[in-house]
UniProtKB/TrEMBL annotation:
<keyword id="KW-0808">Transferase</keyword>
<keyword id="KW-0547">Nucleotide-binding</keyword>
<dbReference type="GO" id="GO:0019674">
    <property type="term" value="P:NAD+ metabolic process"/>
</dbReference>
<dbReference type="InterPro" id="IPR017438">
    <property type="entry name" value="ATP-NAD_kinase_N"/>
</dbReference>
<dbReference type="InterPro" id="IPR017437">
    <property type="entry name" value="ATP-NAD_kinase_PpnK-typ_C"/>
</dbReference>
<dbReference type="GO" id="GO:0006741">
    <property type="term" value="P:NADP+ biosynthetic process"/>
</dbReference>
<dbReference type="GO" id="GO:0003951">
    <property type="term" value="F:NAD+ kinase activity"/>
</dbReference>
<dbReference type="Pfam" id="PF01513">
    <property type="entry name" value="NAD_kinase"/>
</dbReference>
<keyword id="KW-0067">ATP-binding</keyword>
<keyword id="KW-0521">NADP</keyword>
<keyword id="KW-0963">Cytoplasm</keyword>
<dbReference type="InterPro" id="IPR002504">
    <property type="entry name" value="NADK"/>
</dbReference>
<dbReference type="GO" id="GO:0005524">
    <property type="term" value="F:ATP binding"/>
</dbReference>
<keyword id="KW-0520">NAD</keyword>
<keyword id="KW-0418">Kinase</keyword>
<dbReference type="GO" id="GO:0042736">
    <property type="term" value="F:NADH kinase activity"/>
</dbReference>
<comment type="subunit">
    <text>Homodimer.</text>
</comment>
Length: 339
């Protein structure tokens, strides 16, 4: 078997840095109930950091035994698009994979390792004290428990990646360089401010929906992969992860009136959404808050699924849910697709 080139991208540990700087030693009065909870949280965060670091070392030791040329980089140190590798392995959680996807085109597959999965028994034990959830790892196919097995299957060609749809965004006819794997949020930079915009769905450059004028807290558009995240929390519905459609929802519309039925719907794979922004300030947030683009009044925004796909190795569990979601999704699609 020829040697393959592999890049390992590591979740930054600065999310733990504040808790690590002082440590449990700063608890001066352990009799205080509040401080006991704080101490418990600090121990929890310390354990999360250790589990993550152990996962990195474990995966690196596995790679040392494989016929691959590899190197590892902390994700925050990555600044250029990824080329000349056969596989990217992310070690962290969904956020790590999402951030990495912004540097990857449609030629390089990605394998996500959930380095710190949530432990059901821990959550149950500590539910009355702290939030003990760890990483969901929805898009991560493996943990340390099955990393070597799945990696061998990939290197030997027994496993192929799935093709996930991403979102393309054009502002004033210029395509933004970042494609969204999860979702896009168009909103005022101040979360308490009202967003004012209009939008319509079009197909083959011809409108196929009424023009909707909205005053709300913003507009969210998600891929199928992102439909189980913020979109679902806001009242949307999960989509089969291989769907090429996009789901949109106006957040907290003010007096939608006759257009209320148009505040939530689908952008089919052959369609796009045209929006116009009417506030002095605005921002387009891509896959969270870290990547955003400023917009201003009069800017036009086109959103579609015409972005390069992302090749991702998915867990067997996630792949089996596709069939279960298909029937329910087709029913939803029939109701929501009025145009």
């Amino acid at each position: 078997m020829s040697r393959r080139r592999l890049l390992m991208l590591l979740k930054p540990i600065d999310v733990y840095s504040d808790s690590q700087s002082d440590g449990p030693s700063r608890i001066t009065n352990p009799q205080s109930q509040f401080l006991l909870k704080e101490l418990q949280m600090l121990h929890h965060l310390e354990n999360r950091l250790k589990v993550h670091n152990d996962a990195i070392i474990f995966c690196q030791n596995i790679l040392c035994r494989k016929p691959v040329e590899w190197k590892s980089i902390v994700l925050n140190n990555l600044s250029q698009p990824i080329h000349d590798v056969d596989l990217v392995v992310t070690v962290g959680g969904d956020g790590t994979l999402l951030q990495a996807s912004h540097f990857i085109d449609d030629s390089v597959p990605v394998l996500g390792v959930n380095s710190d999965p949530t432990r059901a028994e821990e959550v149950e034990k500590l539910s009355n004290e702290i939030d003990a959830t760890r990483s969901t790892g929805y898009l991560c196919a493996v943990t340390v428990n099955n990393f070597e097995q799945v990696l061998d299957n990939i290197l030997e060609g027994r496993t192929i990646p799935s093709k996930l749809t991403r979102i393309s965004i054009c502002v004033n006819s210029l395509v933004l360089s970042t494609y969204a794997l999860n979702d896009v949020l168009i909103a005022h930079p101040c979360p308490a401010a009202v967003s004012q915009f209009s939008f319509k769905i079009k197909s083959d450059d011809q409108p196929c929906s009424p023009l909707v004028n909205s005053r709300s807290s913003g507009l969210r558009v998600s891929t199928a992969a992102g439909s189980t995240a913020a979109m679902l929390s806001a009242g949307g519905f999960p989509m089969p992860i291989l769907s090429e459609d996009l789901q949109f929802m106006v957040r907290e519309p003010m007096s939608p009136g006759e257009t209320s039925s148009l505040m939530h719907g689908l952008i089919k794979s052959h369609q796009s959404m045209d929006a116009t922004w009417f506030c002095k300030e605005g921002a387009i947030y891509t896959d969270g808050s870290h990547v955003f683009y400023s917009i201003q009044s009069g800017d036009t925004i086109e959103i579609s699924s015409k972005a390069p796909i992302l090749k991702v190795f998915l867990s067997q569990r996630l792949q089996t849910t596709v069939k279960k979601l298909e029937e329910a999704y087709l029913q939803k699609k029939e109701i929501l697709c009025k145009y």
